[in-house]
Design a protein that fits this description.
By secondary structure, the chain is mainly β. The protein folds into 2 domains: 178 residues, Immunoglobulins (Immunoglobulin-like), CATH 2.60.40; 85 residues, no CATH class. The strands form 5 sheets. Strands 2, 5, 6, 9, 12 and 13 form a 6-stranded mixed sheet that branches. The longest helix is centred in the N-terminal third of the chain and has 15 residues. It is globular and about 90 Å long. It binds zinc ion. Zinc ion binds next to helix 2.
Length: 329
C-alpha cells in the first residue's frame, strides 16, 4: 500500500506535465546588486538561450529604437507567497529615432546562449541606446521580485525566426514547412525572478563587495574609469592586459559577427560597453581583416604579362587582423 501511494505521489507531477512540450527557448536574468538606490545606475544581465539541438536564429534588441520593447521588466511585491504586480516597463519605446535602427538577427548554435547587459537609470544614454532605455519605476522603498519578458511578436521580423504557439496548447498553430523555427507562445516567455531591494534615498546602505574580476591595479580598468581613450585604444590594439577577459570596468563585448565577406580586405566591428567615472559609455572597435599587398599585385600582373604565370605569389592574406580604431558613440 505504501509503495503504491509513493508511486502515485511520484507519478502525479509527471502526469500533469505530460502534455507540455519542452521549451525551446529560455531567458534568464541576473544582477550583481541586491540593494539599489532609486536613481542609481545599475546593470541587469540578460541571457537568452537556444534549447534545441539545431542551429536557430533569434531576435535581439540590437539597434532597435522604435516600436515595442523586446525585453520588458516587471516588478512584483510578495506577501504571504502571493505575487502582486506593482509596476512594469512601458512597452512602447521612446527614443531618438534620427538614426535608423532595428532589432538584429542572431544565429545560435544548439544549446548556445547570447548574453547582453541592460542598464537602468542611465539617463546619459537613455534615448540613444536601447540597452540603456530602462528606468527603475518610482516605487516605495522595499524588496521586490523582478522578472523580464521576451516579447518578439510585435516585431515584423519575428515570423522569420519563431513559430507561433498558444500559451495553453504548445502545439504550433499552423504547421510550417520549416520545422527549424523556435516555438514561441503569443504571450512571450518570461525569465526567472531576481530579488531587488530599493533603498530609500535618505537611508545609508552598506556598499556591497563588488568582486573585481581582474587584478587590483588593472591598467585597462584604470584607463577606462578615467576615460583615457587613447590608452584604452592602445591596450586593445596591442592586445595587452588580457583585455578580452572579464574586467570590472568593461561591461560587455559583443560576440564576433556570425559571418564575414570573403573578399579581402573586409571590415568587422565589436561593440563595447564601458563603465567610467561619469557613467556608461558605448563604443565600437573596427578591424580590418585581411591585407592586400600592392607591390606583389603589380609583380603578379607583370609576371602574367611576361611569363603567363603568377609563380604562386599570394597578393593578399586573410590572416592579418588589424584594429583600425576605437569610436565612442
Ligand atoms: Zn581590469
Amino acid at each position: 500500500m505504501k509503495q503504491l501511494f509513493l508511486l502515485l505521489l511520484l507519478g502525479v507531477p509527471f502526469l500533469s506535465f505530460a502534455d507540455l512540450r519542452p521549451s525551446q527557448f529560455s531567458i534568464t536574468i541576473s544582477c550583481d546588486k541586491q540593494v539599489v538606490s532609486p536613481n542609481e545606475c545599475f546593470q541587469i544581465t540578460i541571457q537568452v538561450s537556444n534549447l534545441t539541438v539545431q542551429n536557430q536564429s533569434i531576435l535581439i534588441p540590437g539597434a532597435q529604437n522604435k516600436g515595442k520593447r523586446l525585453i520588458q521588466l516587471e516588478y512584483y511585491q510578495v506577501t504571504n507567497n502571493f505575487y502582486t504586480k506593482v509596476a512594469e516597463e512601458i512597452r512602447t519605446i521612446q527614443m531618438d529615432t534620427s538614426e535608423r535602427g532595428s532589432v538584429y538577427f542572431k544565429r545560435l548554435d544548439p544549446k548556445e546562449s547570447y548574453t547582453f547587459p541592460i542598464f537602468l537609470n542611465d539617463s546619459l544614454n537613455y534615448t540613444k541606446h536601447i540597452q540603456s532605455n530602462y528606468r527603475l519605476p518610482k516605487l516605495p522603498a522595499g524588496t521586490y521580485q523582478v522578472l523580464a519578458w521576451y516579447l518578439p511578436w510585435d516585431e515584423e521580423l519575428a515570423k522569420y525566426t519563431f513559430q507561433l504557439t498558444t500559451d495553453f496548447d504548445k502545439n504550433p498553430i499552423e504547421v510550417s514547412e520549416e520545422e527549424s523555427k523556435i516555438e514561441m507562445p503569443a504571450g512571450g516567455i518570461n525569465s526567472n525572478y531576481i530579488s531587488l531591494t530599493i533603498a530609500s534615498d535618505s537611508v545609508f546602505y552598506p556598499k556591497e563587495n563588488t568582486c573585481t574580476p581582474c587584478e587590483e591595479h588593472c591598467r585597462f580598468c584604470h584607463a577606462i574609469e578615467h576615460e583615457k581613450w587613447h590608452k584604452v585604444e592602445r591596450i586593445i590594439r596591442h592586445e595587452q592586459h588580457d583585455w578580452r577577459k572579464q574586467h570590472s570596468q568593461l561591461c560587455w563585448i559583443s560576440p564576433n559577427p556570425d559571418a564575414i565577406l570573403d573578399c579581402l580586405p573586409t571590415y568587422s566591428t565589436n561593440e563595447l560597453i564601458f563603465k567610467t567615472k561619469s557613467g556608461i559609455k558605448y563604443a565600437f572597435i573596427t578591424y580590418q581583416i585581411g591585407k592586400i599587398y600592392p607591390v606583389r599585385q603589380r609583380l603578379v600582373q607583370l609576371f602574367h604579362l611576361v611569363f603567363n604565370t603568377s609563380f604562386g605569389i599570394r597578393t593578399s592574406s586573410y590572416k592579418k587582423v588589424r584594429m583600425m580604431k576605437l569610436t565612442l558613440w
